[in-house]
Design a protein that fits this description.
By secondary structure, the protein is an alpha/beta fold. It has two domains: about 120 residues; about 80 residues, Arc Repressor Mutant, subunit A. It is about 40% helix and about 15% strand. It is built from seven helices and seven strands; from the N terminus they run ββαβαβαβααααββ. It has a five-stranded parallel sheet with strand order 3-2-1-4-5. It has a two-stranded antiparallel ribbon with strand order 6-7. The radius of gyration is 21 Å and the shape is elongated. It starts with a strand and ends in a 13-residue tail after the last strand.
């Protein structure tokens, strides 16, 4: 699985909140200058579920373009360890553009954005999360109605499967709501955390016919 590394220049861009990054292929490094001894609690809480996929790097001393050099060096470290990784630098500083052009010449996927809001692979996850409940039900029903698809035997495994099906973009309460709707429509029955399946034929797996 291709890894996406987001390098956030926090001296240059301070997002008030972070989009969902609860996907195993997304890594985040937040770069702090020497005059930024603290980060907002909201930022820490949003990155905490990522575990070791998120980290903070703070310079001890500053200087002209000091943080830029560290970001560039970190990008090099990442690519040396994983040449297939993609690099996404979040900064308004156009001084990174020559570096990106050099990476493009080496057939390396790299980009710069002035905001996290314009990062396409993050927006894909957000759109999955914003799908109406009925659309999510249809997606799950269509998945499990296909021939040869394994049917989870336990509630925990079912939830994990749904989590993966939606690219890990759903929160736990959203998954719980989806499972309850699947039970209401009698697509599944749950007894003592054991799941029984009664999925409709693929052509009938739609909210309108549920």
């Amino acid at each position: 699985m291709k890894k996406h590394h987001i390098l956030l220049d926090y001296e240059n861009v301070q997002p008030k909140s972070l989009p969902s990054m609860d996907r195993e292929e997304i890594y985040l490094t937040v770069f702090l200058g020497p005059n930024q001894p603290r980060v907002p609690v909201e930022l820490v809480m949003r990155t905490q579920p990522m575990g070791n996929r998120a980290r903070y790097l703070r310079l001890a001393t500053g200087g002209m373009n000091a943080l830029d050099f560290v970001i560039a060096f970190t990008a090099g470290e990442i690519l040396a360890a994983d040449p297939d990784a993609s690099i996404c630098i979040i900064t308004k500083d156009k001084g990174f553009d020559p570096l990106l052009e050099h990476l493009w010449s080496r057939k390396i996927k790299a980009e710069r954005h002035a905001s996290l809001d314009s990062v396409q692979f993050l927006q894909t996850a957000a759109k999955q999360s914003l799908k109406p409940l009925g659309d999510r039900v249809q997606s799950v029903a269509e998945h499990f109605s296909r021939a040869g698809v394994s049917k989870p035997r336990t509630l925990k495994t079912l939830k994990n499967t749904i989590h993966s099906l939606f690219k890990k973009a759903l929160q736990e309460d959203e998954i719980d709501s989806l499972v309850e709707e699947l039970k209401r429509r009698k697509f599944i029955a749950v007894t003592d955390n054991k799941v029984e399946h009664a999925w409709p034929a693929a052509s009938a797996a739609s909210p309108a016919k549920a």
